[in-house]
Amino acid sequence: MFLPERPLRLGTRGSPLALAQARMTARALCAAHGWPEEAVAIVTVQTSGDRIQDRALADIGGKALWTKELDRALVEGAIDFAVHSMKDVETLRPDAFRIAAMLPRADVRDRLVGADDFAALPANPIVGTSSPRRAAQVKRLRPDATITLFRGNVATRLAKLAAGEVHATLLAAAGLDRLDQQDVGATIAIDVMLPAPSQGAVGIETLGDNDAMVAALCAINDGDTFDAVMAERGVLKGLGGTCHSPIAALARVEGEFLHLIAEIISPDGQETVREETRLARGDDAAQAVGHALLGRASPALRSLFEA
Ligand SMILES: NCc1[nH]cc(CCC(=O)O)c1CC(=O)O
């Protein structure tokens, strides 16, 4: 067995959610290998995404804002592996990195916080979110809603809601659960609000040429989660999607196959293009689903996916 001579350095963002996910990963890795707790040291790295709080992600450089400082730490050897919410990991990653493992996926659904359901919101509700997907899905359900930009970590968003800045907000159930906020919000069914690609999945990345680290991480990989999330990322790849783009996708393992649902939605919620299909596990067919969605979209919706 691979036994580290010194503590392995796990790199993570410093938000409470990121730290909770880092601790889950460290615990799983030590348990899988029979290592003492001290075998993994958590190293916090501040990212641009954490620093810049007042603008939508899409306007300031996209998802690389969450990964680039951790990437640099990996390349410079300051950390041995990095833990990410897969939802925040860009679709196209530099070749040097390898997503070596994913933890078993948590609840993939969103929760509405501030009302029991969308129908219970007052007329002309103000809903805080900076996710183009959630904004479009809210407009589809409630055309009278006004969307207001809402960023910051989970606690910040809940504080803004409590201060009355908005009638409601949406948060991933996975994040709330990991922060011990199981009682916050009303869970929304998948057929009402299809989640973001990769929602609820924690991924672990290392340098592709670090064979010992890759092997050690493989021991905690959940293969079903990995295949499902990779298929959802395949849809993003096929769409050329970024975090500007209202895209939802969910794959679930069914025996030898993946059941995949994906949709793109116009920002006003008036146009939805949806595909539902069965795919072989671990192939590139998910990218073709992305192409199929674009092929059926109106020119206006399609233009959101052109660079
Ligand atoms: N974009 C921020 C982000 N990235 C991952 C999560 C939640 C955890 C997850 O989806 O795995 C969140 C917060 C949220 O969407 O509520």
Features:
307 residues; alpha/beta; D-Maltodextrin-Binding Protein, domain 2; Double Stranded RNA Binding Domain; 3 domains; 5-stranded mixed sheet; 10 helices; 23% strand; binds ligand PBG
Task: Note the beta-strand portion.
Answer: 15-25%
Spatial shape = globular
Number of strands: 13
**Number of separate domains:** 3
What is the number of helices? 10
Helical content band: 25-40%
Integer average pLDDT: 92
Strand order of the largest sheet: 2-1-3-10-4
The helix-and-strand class reads alpha/beta
Major beta sheet, specifics? 5 strands, mixed
Catalytic activity: 4 porphobilinogen + H2O = hydroxymethylbilane + 4 NH4(+)
Pathway: Porphyrin-containing compound metabolism; protoporphyrin-IX biosynthesis; coproporphyrinogen-III from 5-aminolevulinate: step 2/4
Function: Tetrapolymerization of the monopyrrole PBG into the hydroxymethylbilane pre-uroporphyrinogen in several discrete steps.
Family: Belongs to the HMBS family.
Summarize the topology.
Blueprint: E1 8-12, H1 16-33, E2 40-44, H2 48-51, H3 64-75, E3 81-85, E4 97-102, E5 110-113, E6 126-128, H4 132-141, E7 146-148, H5 154-162, E8 168-172, H6 173-178, E9 186-187, E10 202-207, H7 211-218, H8 223-239, E11 247-254, E12 257-265, E13 272-280, H9 285-296, H10 299-303
Parallel strand pairs: 1-2, 1-3, 6-7, 6-8
Antiparallel strand pairs: 3-10, 4-10, 5-8, 5-9, 11-12, 12-13
Characterize the structure shown:
The protein is α/β, with parallel strands linked by helices. It has 3 domains: 8-103 and 201-221, 3-Layer(aba) Sandwich (D-Maltodextrin-Binding Protein, domain 2); 110-187, D-Maltodextrin-Binding Protein, domain 2, CATH 3.40.190.10; 235-303, Double Stranded RNA Binding Domain (2-Layer Sandwich). The chain contains 10 helices and 13 strands. The chain has helices at residues 16-33, 48-51, 64-75, 132-141, 154-162, 173-178, 211-218, 223-239, 285-296, 299-303, and strands spanning 8-12, 40-44, 81-85, 97-102, 110-113, 126-128, 146-148, 168-172, 186-187, 202-207, 247-254, 257-265, 272-280. The strands form 3 sheets. A 5-stranded mixed β-sheet has the order 2-1-3-10-4, sandwiched between helices. The protein has a 5-stranded mixed β-sheet with strand order 7-6-8-5-9, sandwiched between helices. Helix 4 links the parallel strand 6 and strand 7 (146-148). The radius of gyration is 19 Å and the shape is globular. The model has no long low-confidence stretch (mean pLDDT 92). Bound molecules: the ligand NCc1[nH]cc(CCC(=O)O)c1CC(=O)O. Ligand PBG is lined by residues 85, 87-88, 171-172, 174-175, 199-201.
